[in-house]
Amino acid sequence: MKTILLLFLITILTDGVSPSTTPTAAPQGNACTTIIGQPRKPPCEFEILTVWFMGKNNEVLGKVTKPGTAIKLPGSKAISKQEVMNGGSLMYNVSIDFRRINTPSTATAAYTLSKANITNPISAGETQVVNDQIKVSPNLPQPGIRPNRILFNIALNYGKSQGDPNPQLIAPIQLLQLENPVTFAKLAKAKETNQFRDWAEAWMTFSVSVDFTK
């Protein structure tokens, strides 16, 4: 069986430390609700299963499986580090596993992954595109098909105050969301809700911190 739904932007992960790819059956129906708790219309296409944070050797440093999860990453495991006089930046690999739960309400050539430094963006300036060329089949997967996967990296910027030995992260990422750009534009134009999250096909919120002593 062709697993055309499996999306690898980075195809090779180290054996024994890579995120789990256990096949998962896709449920039927609408598993997406709006911020006010109502089912979204049209129903969401995807469900984000896991957001993995990985280090320099692709070892798993933390994972998010439900909204609002807090994770702390070891500073020494960043894939790269840049320092300036009053701060710096740590780079980490991130992997997202997601699956289709409904067929598209509108056709699109590609999907978009966006990020935000807040959990509830309400304007275009509060989100940034990570990748807008994500290809996903419009068909529901058969039971046992592995989830789709997107891999990318993020920078966590930090600042240091004079006399304070503990650096502080500056506006770290807190939201990832998958968008059908055609559906997204229709919902925005209709203004059924002013919440960007409600226009997305799937989203996950979390809080990230760094332990600079590890």
SSE arrangement:
Blueprint: E1 46-54, E2 60-64, E3 69-74, E4 80-84, E5 87-100, E6 111-116, E7 128-134, E8 148-159, E9 168-169, E10 175-179, H1 181-190, H2 196-199, E11 202-211
Parallel strand pairs: 3-11
Antiparallel strand pairs: 1-2, 1-5, 4-5, 5-8, 6-7, 6-10, 8-9, 10-11
Can you offer a commentary on this structure?
- The protein has 214 residues and is mostly beta strands.
- The chain is 7% helix and 38% strand.
- It has two helices and eleven strands.
- The strands form two sheets. Strands 1, 2, 4, 5, 8 and 9 form a six-stranded antiparallel β-sheet that branches.
- The longest helix is centred in the C-terminal third of the chain and has 10 residues, at 181-190.
- The radius of gyration is 18 Å and the shape is globular.
- Mean pLDDT is 84; it is low at 1-18 and 21-30.
Q: How many individual β-strands?
A: 11
Q: Give average pLDDT, whole number.
A: 84
- Tell me the radius of gyration: 18 Å
| Global structural class | mainly beta
The dominant shape is globular
Helical content stands at: under 10%
Give a short overview:
By secondary structure, the chain is mainly β. It has helices at 181-190, 196-199; strands spanning 46-54, 60-64, 69-74, 80-84, 87-100, 111-116, 128-134, 148-159, 168-169, 175-179, 202-211.
Features:
214 residues; mainly beta; six-stranded antiparallel β-sheet; five-stranded mixed β-sheet; 2 helices; disordered N terminus
